[in-house]
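Bench notes, afternoon.
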Amino acid sequence: MYLRLTLSAAILALSMTSALADMEFPAKIAGHAILPAETYIQPPADAPAQLKISGQFTNLARAEGMGTVMGRSSGRPTGVRVPFFGQPVQGHSGIKRMRDGSFWVLTDNGFGSKANSPDAMLFLRRYNIDWGRGAMDALETVWLHDPDKKVPFRITNENTEKRYLTGGDFDPEGVQIIDNKFWIGEEFGPYLIRADRSGKIEAVFETQVDGKPLRSPDHFRVVASNPGAATDPSVNLGRSRGYEGLASSPDGRFIYGLLEGPVWDAEKKDWEKTAEGRTVLRILEFSVAEAKWTGRHFKYVLEPGATAIGDFNMLDATTALVIERDNGEGVGAKVCPAGQRAENCFHDPAKFKRIVKIEMTAAMANGPVRKIGHIDLMKIQDPDKKARKPLDNGVLTFPFFTIENVDVVDGRHIIVGNDNNLPFSSSRDPNRADDNEMILLDVEALLKAK
């Protein structure tokens, strides 16, 4: 009897421990939609003439002649050349499902940096996704612009009437819609941006962390130092490590910005880490009504093998979904032999691509969130043959360098999408630029997990 009770208690204890751990749950594909890589749109009629062509500065020096510079992914040619005629519909970096079933999708800065993206226009598009046809049907496009000069620094199109924004100004990476306003999390500053329904900028909020400004080397108040001089002491975030995910509370009272990189600890002269050396990313809270940072935050701890997060959306008042990933891309037969690197194979294949469900209650404020469970995007089940890309060893993989879109669809489904970084990412075929993909996943067990 004693042995039986002890065994039962041990099983119960193990069960309780497992229930509190970050458990893996299955994922089954329920739909797959493709927007071809080379999809372009024309800028508005009143946009400056130079914006009819994009990608002229991807190598920093101006490229003369259409299609004269090959795009490359880790040295591999992707088959797509710049400059483009028109604006590419690429770089999907944030998503929000609407009540009518459509999706707002945010396009990022263009080509990866402030210096190489002054001809990439910033915009959002609303889509209906037809899972039966596997197609994304555009309903409307909203171009970000600043006619009232709310942006506190000189923009690329400073001396134009409409003042359309470009990737030389901002890098938008996450979006929320509250009271018919677009709230956009930006990576370069990092800044929080509010725009009206037409895309007109209403406010730009600089970020505060621990009562101090949070600034990357690309913040407009930062001035580069002369050789040999100390770097600007106000810089406390790495370049391009600002808001990668942006979420909002269901009641619209708070916005939560999740940084892609850790904050610099000036006292320790190191990036913020746990005692075990794991990278810590901040989730910063912003009050919508007060239009200011509350000073409260949460800590998201990266798993070993992960290098960044990709997106962030709330499920309810206390739980959320986060994309956690490595920097690898590609899998399968086209992986390079160990230790080798070539133009026609993946030398750093994808290994860690997850959607994580977290809990962040008031009691956890200023401390770590709890990871409830996750799905592995490298082994998505496809029993109903819904995948529109080849399977790898019987499963659909999502082996993209950047996966930057996740939101809940209903009680059992979520949507996940990649950022194809046109013309710079080739994660399914070593020498073919990635399409924009959206997958509908049945993850009922994950959504129900406590």
